[in-house]
Structure formats: C-alpha cells, structure tokens
Specification:
Elements (H helix, E strand, L loop, with lengths): L8 E3 L1 E5 L2 E5 L12 E6 L7 E6 L4 E7 L2 E6 L4 E6 L4 E5 L4 E5 L6 E6 L8 E2 L2 H14 L1
Antiparallel strand pairs: 1-9, 2-3, 4-11, 5-10, 5-12, 6-9, 6-11, 7-8, 7-10
Length: 141
C-alpha cells in the first residue's frame, strides 16, 4: 500500500499580537521526526522546478518562510498540490513520496528540515524508478 497523503499539510501554532507574529512547531509532535539537517532554497526563478525526487529513508518538512511556493506530493497513486504562503503552515514529505516544488514567487524562501544527513544514495531521481520502487514496497507489505 502506498503512503497516505492525508497528513501532509501541517499547521503549526501561530501567535500574533501588537509586537508581531510568532510561529512554533515541535519536532516529534506536529512535525513527526527529529531533524539532522536543514537547508534554505531561495532566489529561484519562477519558471524553475526544484525537487523532482523521492527519498528512500529521509523525511522532510517544508515551510515557506517568505513569499510562496507550490509543493506537489505524489505517493505513486495520489498526487496533491499545496500552496505554501504562510509561515505557520508546512508540508511533510515522508520517505517514498515524490516531491516537486514549483511556481516560486520572486521573494520565496523555502526552509526544509530533513531527518537524515545528506546521502546521495538515498535519492530516487527518476520518476519511473520511483514507481517501480513504490510498487515493490507495496508488494512486500
């Protein structure tokens, strides 16, 4: 069975008062893993596409800190697209889910937390290979 995409969009706590806004998410609670690394994606021309891969083991959580970006998640059966344009809203991408980021606004800053240190062997960069791997994991379940 493919991964469920029902718990992908996560709203974290947002507090606003006259001093400004604050958003907080707790790893292991709202964000279902403990990160080992993070990276920022910015200055992406709006016509460019980022991501286009799945991870075998790594979990990711994406938050658009500024501006907006669309995130497509695909578990091999279902595809969903989410607009990230609020700093208290993020997309959780579990292992074996294909992720694509596109339609970046000019000022977009995307923060990504990852559950694993970088490992090039953890990536599936070819969509057809992803579908085969997803089908193999479904068959063994």
């Amino acid at each position: 069975m493919a991964n469920s995409l029902s718990q992908v969009l996560i709203n974290t706590k947002l507090v606003e008062d006259p001093r400004g806004g604050l958003t907080v998410g707790e790893f292991g609670k709202e964000i279902p893993f403990l990160p080992k690394r993070y990276f920022l994606v910015f200055n992406v021309p709006s016509r460019e596409i980022r991501g286009e891969h799945a991870h075998k083991k790594c979990h990711q959580f994406l938050i658009c800190m500024k501006g907006s970006v669309e995130v497509l998640v695909d578990d091999g059966i279902t595809k969903e697209t989410y607009l990230l344009n609020k700093p208290h809203q993020g997309v959780y991408i579990p292992p074996m889910v294909w992720g694509v980021q596109h339609n970046y606004s000019q000022d977009a800053v995307l923060l990504v937390f990852a559950s694993e240190y970088y490992d090039g062997d953890d990536y599936i960069r070819n969509y057809d290979e992803f579908l085969v791997a997803q089908d193999a994991s479904s068959s063994s379940s």
